[in-house]
Each structure stands twice: as structure tokens, then as C-alpha cells.
Amino acid sequence: MTIAARFTFDEAHLLESLNRNRRQTRGRHIFTGVKIVAGLLFVAMGSILLISDKIGLSLILFAPAIVLAFAHKLDQPSICRRFRKSPFYGINVRYTFTEERIEVVHEKSEIKMDWSVFTRLVVFKDGLLAFQGDGVSHWIPESSFDSRASFEAAEELFRSKIRNTK
């Protein structure tokens, strides 16, 4: 059985891939809690200073609260700008999944990987996120498959080949 998926590696795909990958990071909820508490403290202290007519100091305390609240969005323009300079920007990628391996083909290279290189799989309603260790992940959206049946067949194949599935 051979299943294929195709997509264009563009900014939207990169950002979605990074977002899905970041959501899988261990300890993310603890860090999010710390950010919320710190942000609320900055807002509270800034509000107290604002009431005391110390507008300049209050703005200095509101700034870190804003940065903490929108940090995940602030790095996106920089990521996109750097990615546009990458040789991989805008390439058409084709994944082929077989019982033996995964093949990734695009204009710049051809990669053949045994299933054993994948350590973890996270299944979403709209795609698959396959990890090679902790540093590399492959986001394969459902929209890159020819049909829903192809996506479901790929999901079944991934589940049978990658033991650590969430």
C-alpha cells in the first residue's frame, strides 16, 4: 500500500507546524501559568502607578505584560522573514508512505526514512505530527491528502508503525 501527501512549504505551513510542535512541549502549561501570574503582577503594579499619576512608570510596567501576553505572536514576523530567504521557501513537497518507509521528495532533495526514526506521533483531527526525537517534527495536514480515506489510511499506517502515539 502506498499513500501520498502533497503540499507547498509556505509560511502558513511553517507557522502551523511550529505552533503544533510548541503545544507538545513538556512543561508548557507550567510556563504558561508563570507567564499569566507575571503578566497580572505587571498589570496590577502598573495600574497602581497609573492611579498614583505616575504614567511613565506605569507604561514601563504595562510593556512587559503586553510582551508576555503576545510573545507567541511577536516572533512570527521574524520567522517568516527568515523563512522567505530560505532555499526551502515555497517548494512543493511530496510525502510517500509505504509499509517499509517514508519518502520525502521536493526540488532540493530526496529523503528516505525508515519508520524506526520516528519516536512519537500526535494525531489531530486535521493532521498528523510525527516526531524524530525531540527536535524535528513533520506536520502533515489532512488537506495534503487526496481524500479523507487516504488520510485515514495514513493515520492507521502511522499508528501501526509508531508505538508512542497520542
Summary?
The protein has 166 residues and is of the alpha+beta class. The chain has helices at 11-22, 28-51, 55-74, 76-84, 148-161; strands at residues 3-9, 91-97, 101-105, 110-114, 120-124, 127-132, 136-141.
Task: Outline the structure in words.
The strands form 2 sheets. The chain has a 4-stranded antiparallel β-sheet with strand order 1-2-3-4. It has 2 domains: 95 residues, PH-domain like (Roll); 55 residues. By secondary structure, it is an alpha+beta fold. The model has no long low-confidence stretch (mean pLDDT 88). Helix content is 48%, strand content 25%. The two termini are 24 Å apart.
Q: Assign the structural class, choosing from mainly alpha, mainly beta, alpha/beta, alpha+beta, or little secondary structure.
A: alpha+beta
Give the DSSP E fraction (strand runs of 2 or more residues): 15-25%
CATH class of the largest domain: Mainly Beta
Q: For the CA atoms, what is the radius of gyration?
A: 21 Å
Order of helices and strands: EHHHHEEEEEEH
Mass-distribution shape = elongated
